[in-house]
Each structure stands twice: as structure tokens, then as C-alpha cells.
Fold each of these.
Amino acid sequence: MSRYMTGLVVRTEGTPAELVELRLPEIGPGQVRVRIRAAGVCHSDLSMINGTLRPPHPLVLGHEAAGEVVEVGDHVTRAKIGDHVVLNWQPACRSCWFCEHGQPWLCSTSHGVAALENGLTLDDAPVHVTLGVGAFAEQVVVPENAVIAVPPELEFDLAALLGCAILTGTGAVRNTARVAPGESVLVIGLGGVGLSAVAAARAAGAAQVIAVDVNESKKGLAEAAGATDFVASSENLSKDIRSRTSRRGADHAIECVGRAATIRAAWRATRTGGQVTVVGMGAADDMLQLSALEIFSSARILRASVYGQADTDLEIPALARDVLDGKLALGHLITDRIGLADVPAAFDRMARGEGARSVVTL
């Protein structure tokens, strides 16, 4: 087996991503080598290069992916050669305080880790991998708890989306907001995560799902996902949402952008006693301002949803079954199928708010 592969690397902060030849590490005990077959282009990858996050370099981009196990190390018990797997970029250790208290999505060994070294090298120098994965490459080496087996009948491009966009958006609705039948839901930001939240809200029985985006071309995608209303984002968003919700505001707002301005808009468009769930990951210096009086008088709940507040080992296989059973349709989420060399152009489309998910196929 070749110990070299091609990967998409950012060498230093501020430089463009480029395809380079990387030397793969030897596989160690408890590790798994996966041949990447599909990888989604996620906004978190863009955050690694646009200044929102400051990861170490050189850096292999990509984290939302699926592939086939081609090698396993000693003592591996949860994967075997030939398995089709989804990669988990925030695997739970199952032994820290958070894992033992039912919050594996906040696992102290992986939560908040932007990038790691894993033995990969470029010109004999260490290379970091995004969120411990580095999926914009032909292969990855990860610990066995970072792979989750899915049925081989599930297409790789759809399986890849389960590892981030679908799990995050669906989990925000099911696990964090806990949307109930008959409620109204506002979703702001219609990328892959936001469209997944729209679909999950309708599946949860929401009577009204109002989808919001700055790009009016997202209307068709929103309707395909199950939105009952589409609203182009504007300064009058709160007034518009209230006019559609008996003047009260939405029961739930799911913010999938990660900006103070859109969190504030979600807050204002939610009814008294409603809940705002923040899914988008924002910048450290983008400050949100709420007065002490409005926090008290509005009686609203403001929460974050990290990785869908999900136990990935349980929920990714369940989502895979839903896709195969026809309960969860994902095809509309993939608007572009591309190669590794096309990822920078996909970032440009994402920055302009175009399309839903671009998926690299290998």
C-alpha cells in the first residue's frame, strides 16, 4: 500500500489551499486507515481559512466525510477492513466528566480542538489535520472511536453529510430545541445545516417552518426541504416574522449563520417565552449585545447546540436507517459534486451564499 497521497493543504495563514503530496503515517494500535470516498465542504472548513478560527499550519482541510476502511491497527474492535464508515470529527472518549454525565458532544478530549497532528508529513515536516480528520485527502488515519459504520447500501456522498450537516441541523431541532408538533420554527441561514434543520422541523410536526436567507435563490431549496414560508433577510425581519405568526413571533428560532447580527435578529423574531438555538459558529470578537431588562422581560431562552447535542454513535446509524427507509431525503442538499481541486471555488460559492452543499467525490 502506498504511503503517499494527495491532500488539500493550506501551508501558512493567509495563503491559498493547494494540492500537495503527503506522506501517510504508519498505523498504530487502536487506529484505522480510511480511504475517503466523499467529503462535504462545510462552513467550519471555511472558518479555518477566513480568520474566524486560527488553526496551526500546515493544515489539511476537511472534516465531513465518509469512506471505506482499508487497514486497522492492533486492538481495533469497532471496525474491520471493508466497512463503510462516517467519520466523527468530535469522538467521545466515554471516560471524561462530560461523557459520563450524558454530554458526549462536549467531550473534554475533543471539544474545541481546531486541528491535531497525527503523524502526517509534508517535506518531512509535521502537518495538522482539521478537527482531527483532514478529510480533503485520499486517505486519513484516525482513532477507531472516530469511525462509525453505516450500511454499504448508503451512497458515500449522502453518508458524508450525516457526519456534520445533517446531524448538526437535525440535532438542533430534535435534541436542543425539542420542537413539538404544532409549533412554529424560524430557521436563519440556509446552507447544509440550515436546510437540514428545516427538514427536521417539518418532520417533527412543526405547523409553520419559516426559512430565512439573504440569497433569494435559496427559496426553492427551502421549499424542497419542507419550509412553509421563505423570507429574504432584511432589517424588517422581526416585523415580517411576527406578521406570519399571529403577531407573537416564532416559538423557536434556529440560527445557522454564527453572527451577532443574525443571533440578535433571531432573538427579536422569537415570541415571549420562546427559544433561540444558536448553531452557527461565530468569531470571538463578534459581540452580541442584549440588555438586562429584555433578557428578563422577554423570558426567552438562548442556547447553543454543539454538534446537534447528539451521541454520534447512536444517532448517525439511526439517521442512515432513516435515509435508506425513505424517511429522510437528502438529495436536494447536494448542489455541486466536485473534485479536490474544486474546493477553493466551492468556498467562494459558500462565501457568496450560493447553493447548499458541495461534496468532493474521490
Amino acid sequence: MAHRVQIIGSYLSPYVRKVLVFLDLKGIPYEVDPIVPFFGDERFSRISPVRRIPVLIDDQTTLADSSVICQYLEDRYREPRLYPADIIDRACARWLEEYADSRMGEVFIWRLFNQVAIKPTVWGEQTDKATLEKTLQEDMPQVLDYLEVQVPAEGFIFGSVSIADISIACFFRNATFARFQLDAARWPGTAAFVERVLRLESFEKLKPIEERLRRTPLMQHRAALMEMGVPITQDTYGTAKPRRGVMRID
């Protein structure tokens, strides 16, 4: 059995979700310190200099950034393969992972989820309605138009499930949290693809945890997870008072 790893980060983060799905598909046991990055202490700043999640800690190393973590896990635990074997397909999968992490992250998280959930919940700030409207009317359609020509009519992008499928699908959970509904008539391929990927057992088993935490105040997340029997770390990098990251995006 693989050595149990620690993941620092909230179950509600798409980047954490990506790593947890990856770990589950690999059959690697893990435990979570479920912090929101804004509530990380000084020790958190040392292991994640840009104060973002997730962070992986195992018996050999400490790594920040979901893409770095997944590549490390792929190299260390060879089966099942979650990056395509073909060199061109593997490069394309990495591009789609990068597109998800960067462009989809900007639009789905920093422009949509941030406005609807993070700003009012963490900072007590009002939603910027102009930013939200532009996001829904311009940015989201541009992303979805691109995905519509990338995803397959059936199955997964490279035949079997890969980092590309996982990375893209992760962000649609947060879109749902922000009350965004994907128009299946306008983007039928993307809608069907996202539904297929999110039906994977590794995604499905996270849903009850995510739904519970969505209804739970941030400072009570650890207690809620303990009540659910979810493996969590004994120690936490969390604090009670939030602070902004060094790579702030409004």
C-alpha cells in the first residue's frame, strides 16, 4: 500500500479536488488539513510561498501547486497511468490541464466564485455586479466555446480518464456552487462530457463532503469532517483570522 500523504487545502477548492481525485484513482491513501488558504499561518507561508492550495506532504517531499503534485504522483506511482503514454497526447493533456488551471481558474474561481462566495463569506465584501455580469456574458461563453471543440462526443479526451478530464471537470463543481447552470442546448458536448467525468466514483465520493462543508461555517470545517469520519490531520496550518495572499486577484 502507498504511504499515506497529507493534503493541505479545502475540499471546496477545484485545485484540491483535482489532487484528491488523482490520489483516489491511483489508490493512494491520504488525510486532509481542510484550510482555506486565506486562513493559513506562517508555517503555511513557508511551504506555500504564494499562499495557495493544495500542498502535499509525504514521506519524501513537500510540494505546492496541483499540477506539480499530480506530475510527481504520476512519476512515483506509475499505475494506473493518468497522463497519456503518447508524447503528443501527453503534451496536449498538459496543455488542457494548464488551460483549466489558468484560464478556467481565472474565470470560474476569481471572477465567478470569488464574487459570489469568497468576497462576501471571507472578507465581508459586496459582489461586484459589473464584474459578475461580464464574467457570465463574455468570459464564461468564451471558455465554453473553446471546450466545446476540445471534448469528445463520447468517453474521455484521450480514450481513458486522464489529467485533462479531471482538471476541466473540477471547475464545474465550483460553478455549480456559484449557481451557474451550463446551457446544454448551447454547449451540448461540454455538458455531456462534464456529466460523464463527474459521475466517476472518485468525484462522487467527494460530493457529500463538499455539500456538508458548503453549509458549514469555515471555522467548523474540521469538526464537521471529523463527525463524518473523514481522515484529517492531527495538526492544522489554519488560523482564525484571514489574510490575503501575495498574488491577489480581484
Amino acid sequence: MIINKKINTQFNSVVSNVRKTSELVDCSGASVFIIHNDNIVTEEYWGKHSKAPDLREIQEDTQFHVASVRKSYIGFAVAYAVYEGYIDSIDDLIVKYLPANSMPIFNGTTIRHLLTHTHGLKSINGEIHREFTPGINWSYRGVGIDMLTQIVKSTTGKSVAEIVADNVFKPLNFTETGWLVWRSK
């Protein structure tokens, strides 16, 4: 894939929103990089790596610890599975794609519920419980993320990491990606 650089003002509202959000959450720096129709249309950097004095400015080669970005990767992998026909619809019940001995507690839960954190499932000491009826409320729970990765793997035969690498990182010639593990002292 060849990506050209054609900076324009079409996405200025996105840049403005990210700048405003970065100020609201009091972060030290941020960036916006948008590819649209195989063109880099927006590329902006501001701030520093930390609020400590004399630190490097945010720039093209800055690496960010983005934590919850994995949900975007998982969403992409699910979209890939739908696009390629491995999953019929995100409105399918998850029991269609989970092992035959799936727990009855999963009944009524769709892939969309998992993607939007409206599944109502909660893991307590490794046991899954129903917190609320699917689609009625929202709650961020890792059990949904785990089930999505399992569904992607079982339907496509590939992990989320393999799908993202093959369809995003490699075509864009990303040379360095990975998870950073932050440990407290």
C-alpha cells in the first residue's frame, strides 16, 4: 500500500477535539495522524513526553503508551471477520460462535453487546455471572474482550494480533509495534 501525503483542513474539527481533550485530561502531549483514501490528510504533534522539565517534544517517532487501544484492534478484527464472511453479523448471538457447551448465561448476548460493553456479564473469581440483561446498561468488563478474542480466533483461525499485523501494520510498513508494560516501583 502506498500512502501519499496530502494535508488538508477536512479533519480540523478532529484535531481541535483531540487538543481540547488532551487539555481537559491534563496530558503532557498528544498527536493526531489521519489516513483517508490512502492519503495522510492530517498529521499534528504537540507537547512533551512528560511534564518533567527538559523533556523531548512529541514528534513523528514518539511512542505512546495507549493502553485501551486493544479494543480498537479487537473491533477491527471483528469487522475483518464479518467482511471476510467468518461471522455473519455482529447481531448474531455469541452462542453461535462459542463451543457447543457454552453456558446458558450467554443466551441473549450478541457480538454487538460484547463490542459495546452492554453484555451484562461479569467475572467473579473466574466464574461468569449476569449483572444485567444484555443491551439494558453499559459496564466495562474484560470478560467481553476475552470472548471477542475467542470468537475471532475460532472463526478466522487467526489471532487479533495476526489479523491486525497482516491487514494494518504490514501494509502500512509499521516497523515497530508492541505492548509496553508499565510496572510500579
Amino acid sequence: MNTGVEKQKETFEDIYSKSNNWSYWDDTDPLTRYLLDRRLQIGVKHLMKITNSLPQDWDVLVICGGVGGEGTILANMGFRSVTVSDISENAIQGCELRDSRLQTKVMNAENLDIPDESYDLVLVQDGLHHLPRPVLGLTEMIRVAGRAVIMIEPHAGIVANLLGMEWEDHGGVVNYVFRWNKLMFEQTVKSYVLQVPCQIEVIRLWNHNLVMDKVGKIFGGAQRGKVVVQLCYSLLDLFAGWLGNTTLGLFIKNSPLENHKQ
């Protein structure tokens, strides 16, 4: 079976070679920062509350990390160390140029070339649905996570079915846009870890940053626009449990997987 991994790598190498302007990840405008940071902050805050810990207690690996935008956000949050991985060497080179605080690895997210439980936390944001086999990407995250996994991906639901695309085309490489929900996430995790004691949490969110950016700028942008957008998301969150378009899944290990291997 053709997994599409090599063709995917070629395409993303080409995409990342055509641009070196990734400065928006470093934008200090309050509105832009809020939109970029929001979902990661929700996930990290929830994880820290559950585990009664602080970011500086954790080493984190970001998969499908591109030029390290999410890595920079996590480094700004104070994580002990942040490693960004991606299948594209050009993306990783861009990451190294952008933020010297980040460690980097060129890796295929479906087959991470590192030992089990290498990092405390393994995180992905909007990356699994680019993979030929997204479920394999999630199980690899679980394998190499020593303590927890955070997954932020499109949600399978009414809004996605009506408005979302089914197929995504990157320079001629087409992949199915895999979407998650609570049941899918729980079943994938449990089928992999079996009876290992763990905690699974799934939060449904809204994510309409392009629209919210326009709304914020209409109201003046910067701090004033940020306040308006925060209010909009607060109102939308009242309905997120039924209609939200993003799945935030957390998996927390209560004991190492190796203790339960036969």
C-alpha cells in the first residue's frame, strides 16, 4: 500500500522552500497573540490543573510542528524544554532560524524515530489531519509520551459537515481531512493503551480565527479588538459543546506503559 509519506515530504519541502516569512508567529500585537495562543493556552492550562503541575516541570515534543510557531508559544509559557519535529527539513531549518530556544528533529509523525516515553508531553495542533494515517500519528504520540498528550484537531460534527472541506490539496498531494470527536479519541486511546490506568479528557472548542481577526480589526484591533474577540468567543463557547468545530483531546498517563506490557 502506498502510504503517501514520501510524496507528502516532497510537497512540504517545496512549500517551505518558497517562503521564509514566518514572522506572524512572533507578532506582539495583542489581538494577533490572543488568536495564535488561545487554544494552546486552554489545553495547557487544563493539563496543568489536572496534574497539579507547572510548565517548567515538563519537557515537550511538538509533532507536525512546521517552522515552530506552536513551539515558540510553549517556550513563552515556560516549559522546561521544547522540541519541534516535522517531516520537512526546510521547515525545521526555518524553525531553527526563527527561535533559537527550540530544539528540533526531522521526523515522520507516523513513525517517530525515538524511544518510548521520550518526552513528558507530546502535542499536536492542526497537524494530524495532514497525515496519510492520522490515527497512527496519535498512537505514536501516546507511545513517546511519558506523561501526557494534547491533541488539537478539527471536530467531526454538523458545522464541519456543512462548511468544512473533505479533501485537502497541497501542491497536488491530496489527503482526507480526518476529523475527531470525543468517542473517536477515547476509542483510539483505549484500543492502544488497553487497561493501562489513564485519564482521558475531551473539550470541544470554537476556532474561527480568520473571521475573528477581521472582527477585531473592525473594532480597532490591538487591545480593543482583542477584548471584542474575547467576548465573541465567550458567547460562542456557550454552544461549543454542541456545535464547536475543534476537538481538544487530553490523555494523561497514571503509570508508564511498560509496566503493563505482557
